[in-house]
Amino acid sequence: METSEVEKFNIKNFLSTKGAAIAAAAVAVVGVGALATSSSVASGNNIVLGVRAEGQPIGGMTRTNAEKIFTNIAAQKVHKLTFRYEGEEFVVTPEDINLTPLVDKATQEAFDYGRGGSTIGNFNEQIKCILNGRNVHLNAQYDSALLDEKLNAIAAQINRDPVNAVCRFSGDVIEKIPSVIGKKLNTQELAENLKAPLTTLNLPTGIIDLKPEDIQPFITTEDIASIDSVLGSFSTYYYPGDRGDNIWLAASSISDKIVKPSWTFSFNDTVGERTWDAGYKVAGVIINGRPAEDYGGGVCQVSSTLYNAVLLAGLTPTERTPHFYQSTYVAPGRDATVADGYLDFKFRNDFPHNVYLIAEAYGSTLSVYVLGTKADLGGADIAIEREGSDMSPTIYRVWYSGNDVIRSEFLHTDVYETPKPRQD
Predict the structure, then answer these.
(1) Rounded to an integer, what distance in angstroms lies between the CA atom of residue 124 and that of residue 206?
(2) Would you say 308 and 234 are in contact if contact means Cβ atoms under 8 Å apart?
(3) Three-state secondary-structure class, residue 138
(4) What local confidence, expressed as pLDDT, does residue 72 receive?
(5) Which of 2, 161, 233, 368 reaches 20 to 30 Å from 146, CA-CA?
(6) Of 320, 301, 323, 337, nearest to 411 (Cα)?
(7) How far is it, in rounded angstroms, from Cα 290 to Cα 325?
(8) Predicted confidence band at 52 (pLDDT cuts at 50, 70, 90)?
(9) Which helix (H) or strand (E) holds 304?
């Protein structure tokens, strides 16, 4: 049977010849219509099809209706921030930081899409929008200074300074007061972490648990754990008055200090400069071998008292200078003078455990105690012995086990001058 003409028809051939011409004509018609539509949209009041507001379709809407959609979205997204620390809650409201959704800006962005360009350009953007969609996000602005103010107010209720562990000595009893770890809220980091959620309106919906940083004290409970005895102590005496006030101030500066193994303690670095601003008063001093008056008079009695306690505790003096002439508050060869900037008293802790200093100045008595671990002395008792005259004493530190000498250390030989008359 012969094949009909209809059956001989080939669709591929058609498309490649006459069909192509027809298709092209159809596209041209559609294109002209679309261009006309694009021109109409660009000059009208409706938003291009395919535009969404945070996922909600707003294509074909007027600017006014789209603005209502963005306003409703803002109402759903904007809420207070609630922070919590140790059961206490802190609230920051949108009003506190002037958090403002940028509704007008988002509406304008949605409305401007597919407008403002050439007719062909608008047409291309609109076709892409119809095919692929375009989502407009609602952003916000806030006053960062107000946020910092609120976060700093919260931090003020959370932050606390670390507290050093402390040793107290009364009679033969050593009391140990544990240290306290400090807390500090990093408000700068918190503000930076909130920047993106606030500006994109992706605010946390739950409670924000605050995690302040731990601030370790300089002297921890562990640092004084091994302290069990007074390794050495020494007392001197003074008259109350301006000189006595200086002694009290310097003694307070060296008290409650820890010296760890291999550390070197500097009297000048610890006490600081003896000035009026630091609270020191004018009292008797020795300058160039002559009696004089200057700020901090009497502080050398503190360094000398500390020197004797250090010697009796078995610690190692590394820098010490005698006065020009003998002191009245310690025996010859047992003084240690200091002066701002050029004369210091230093000692090193060569024991395997920490030592702890306590200095007290009450009434007319100055006492310095060196606390530490009794085992570090190996059961020895320490005495300071002298040979020679008062004007040229030689000092030894002698370690005893009962009545037996374990070892004897030569410390120094001093040569004192005769006091010079005061120059007024």
Answers:
(1) 43
(2) yes
(3) coil
(4) 96
(5) 161
(6) 320
(7) 9
(8) very high
(9) helix 299-312
The total of other beta-carbon atoms located within 10 Å of residue 297's CB is: 22
DSSP 110-124: HHHTT-SS-HHHHHH
Q: 384-402: per-residue pLDDT in tens? A: 999 999 999 999 999 999 9
Token duo for residue 424: 């007024």
List beta partners, residue 88: 85
Q: Which residue has the tokens 């010697």?
A: 311
Q: What is the pLDDT of residues 233-291, one digit of tens each?
A: 999 999 999 999 999 999 999 999 999 999 999 999 999 999 999 999 988 787 766 77
Helix (H) or strand (E) holding 106: helix 103-112
C-alpha span between 393 and 333 (Å, rounded): 6
Amino acid at 344: D
Confirm if 369 and 169 have CB atoms less than 8 A apart. Answer: yes
Please name the residue that has the structure tokens 């002395």.
Answer: 377
Whose CA is closest to 32, among 119, 109, 103?
119
Cα separation, 334 vs 414, in Å, equals 9
Cβ neighbours for 38, distance < 8 A, ≥ 6 positions apart? 114, 119, 122, 123, 126
Strands (E), 33-115: 51-53, 56-57, 81-85, 88-92, 100-101
**How buried is 108 (Cβ within 10 angstroms: 0-12 exposed, 13-18 middle, 19+ buried)?**
middle
What pLDDT score does 58 carry?
A: 94
